[in-house]
Amino acid sequence: MTQTPVELLTAFTTADAEQRDAAFRHLVDALWQDGRASDLAPAAVPALLTALDQAPPERQGWLVLLLGLLAGAEPASVGGESAEPIGKELDRFLELLADRGAHPGRTLALLYLLSHFPADRDRILAAVEPLEPSRDDLSRLDRVLRPLDPATAVLGRVWPSPAEWVLSEAERAFDRSWVDALAPAQLAATWDGDTRMLIGYSGAKAYWALRHGTTEVVADTSPHRTTALSADAVGTADLTRHADVLRCPACTGRLDVSPDGARCADCAAGFSSAAGHLDLFERSEPSDPKDVLQNAAAMRNIGLHYETVLRPAFLRLMGGNFGGQVTPADEDRYIAAHTAPVDGPVLDLAAGAGRWTAVLAEAVGAERLIALDLNPAMLTWLSGRLPDVPALRASAQALPFGDATLGAVNCWNALQAMPDPAGVIAEVGRCLRPGGSFTLLTFLQAADPVDRHFQGTFRGPGFPDGMPLFALADLRAWLAAAGLTVRDQYTPGTFAVITAERAA
Questions:
Q1: Sign of the C-alpha dihedral, residues 228, 231, 234, 236?
Q2: Is 182 helix (H, G, I), strand (E, B) or coil?
């Protein structure tokens, strides 16, 4: 028999610790689904608010999180709004927040809930600031409550918190040039997208803390971390030692490679080397000057910022890694242990700023490596920190290598950002030599609908409506179709860490 929302609410508040999570899921499913409030939600809000007064502090945070989900939800039907009656209880939420001795998850859930009421910005911040929340949490709350001012708006450089971004005057001027050129509708849409990302991160952090007691940030103490290196130097390595495996991106013909660039022996297309990398990326269309997220990636120190701020936050959100169960040291060990090249170069595919290229260089030797990425700013950083590793700008969708020419491929935390992930895996299979390994880290779509909702708030270049994540069965099917056999599989949280091998 179907339970009413009040019955589900009672079942949750009285559930023992082992049944708590499942009881909460049942309550959520009745009132909220995929960002939309159910028709039952408006009538259930008064009961939720009453239960908030009666529940023990450990359970209050869960109810606050659900109220936040409903406050930010789209109504399932006309007149089905839940946000207005929740917003009228602002004093109650601020009073709960002032209780500093409460469960840390409850505090984070309250900050998430308050993020949905920008009309009360001044009042909320006046109550929150004396409580001295973390710098990140406060800057996130301040930004999501702030109204859009086109003259001062900062776009694309706020996640996971504005406090994490330190821009030079030149970078600020560059930003103003492209932000000022946006049409009002695009400016508003991008501002709203940034706001959604920040609220989603706050919600994911709170949900983790409610279930696990706290969150943990694991520092990268590896000697390969970017903070120990400089991006000022320009790489000196060239690709001449790997010329026999390279192919023209225009016609797949053989490339004549020199330290200054490359030319196709068949179609005579020419490609230049600059800032330490060979550029083989052929655009069929010019880049869109209004690609907001791509513009935001054009930052001189984007490599450093990516590895020290953006990437760890991305792993927390997409991998459920707020507890630090997968550390950078774990990743180092996995790559070093599972990369098993046969003859031929080793490709670090979508190498980014080179954090894991450095691990590969230590494991197999820099002379065997090729680092490939599409972002020239990342490659400039990589070439400066790993001058002995040749770097290549090219598309993962059409790898510029001959069939069965690569000894191993590593693609770490990148497949989810590819427009055609199955096609990328097929390209890896085409290029790998028999017996060569393919190591892969990416992310699975969360089974928990609340986690899945927060994963979906992330925006990235090419994914203005959210980044699609994977089902494990799909990844395995794509690998099999590419002629690759899974040899190892590791799936903590919503990570997918896989080693596959090209059939001999």
A1: positive
A2: coil
Residue bearing tokens 């609908």: 449
Task: List the one residue out of 385, 500, 482 whose CA is nearest residue 441.
Answer: 500
Residue 218 to residue 312: CA distance in whole angstroms: 9
Mean pLDDT of the chain: 90
Query: Which residue in 57, 266, 299, 64 sits closest to 173, CA to CA?
Result: 299
Q: Per-domain residue ranges for the chain?
A: 5-212, 241-502
Tell me the CATH number for domain 241-502.
Answer: 3.40.50.150
The number of CA neighbours under 13 Å toward the Cβ of 230 is 4
Cα distance between residue 177 and residue 216, in whole Å: 38
State how far the Cα of 458 lies from the Cα of 218, in Å rounded to an integer: 21
In DSSP terms, 288 is beta-bridged to none
- Please, which pLDDT band fits residue 142 given cuts at 50, 70 and 90? very high
82 vs 75: CA distance, rounded Å: 7
* Report field, pTM of the whole predicted structure over 0.90: yes
For residues 77 and 39, the answer to whether their CB atoms sit within 8 Å is: yes
pLDDT over 70 at 293, yes or no = no
Q: Which is nearest to 397 in space by CA: 430, 367, 420?
A: 420
The answer to whether 32 touches 23, Cβ cutoff 8 Å, is no
Q: pLDDT grade, residue 9 (50/70/90)?
A: very high
| 201-219 mean pLDDT | 87
Q: With beta carbons less than 8 A apart as the criterion, state whether 71 and 202 touch.
A: no
Of 413, 427, 426, 441, which Cα lies nearest the Cα of 479?
Answer: 426
**Residue whose entry in the numeric block shows the structure tokens 């821009």:** 167
Using alpha carbons, select from 120, 62, 64 the residue that is nearest to residue 88. 120
Q: Is the pLDDT of residue 224 over 90?
A: no
Tokens 């494990």 belong to: 472
323: CB partners within 8 A, 6+ apart: 208, 212, 215, 216
Residue 245 has pLDDT above 90, yes or no: yes
CA distance 246 to 239: 9
CA–CA distance from 366 to each of 49, 99, 375 (Å)? Answer: 61, 55, 21
Please give the DSSP secondary-structure letter assigned to residue 460.
B
Using N-to-C axis directions, what is the helix angle for 421-431 and 472-481, rounded to 10°? 40
The CA distance from 319 to 224, in Å, is 22
Tell me: pLDDT of 37 over 50: yes
Task: Give residue 298's pLDDT.
Answer: 52
Q: CB of 119 within 8 A of CB of 89?
A: no
Tokens of 480: 């099999």
Write out pLDDT tens, residues 413-450. Answer: 999 999 999 999 999 999 999 999 999 999 999 999 99
Amino acid 446 reads A
Backbone angles phi, psi at 184, to 5 degrees: -55, -40
Q: Is the pLDDT of residue 295 over 80?
A: no
Q: Could you give the C-alpha distances from 180 to 176, 193, 194, 299, in angstroms and in order?
A: 6, 17, 17, 18
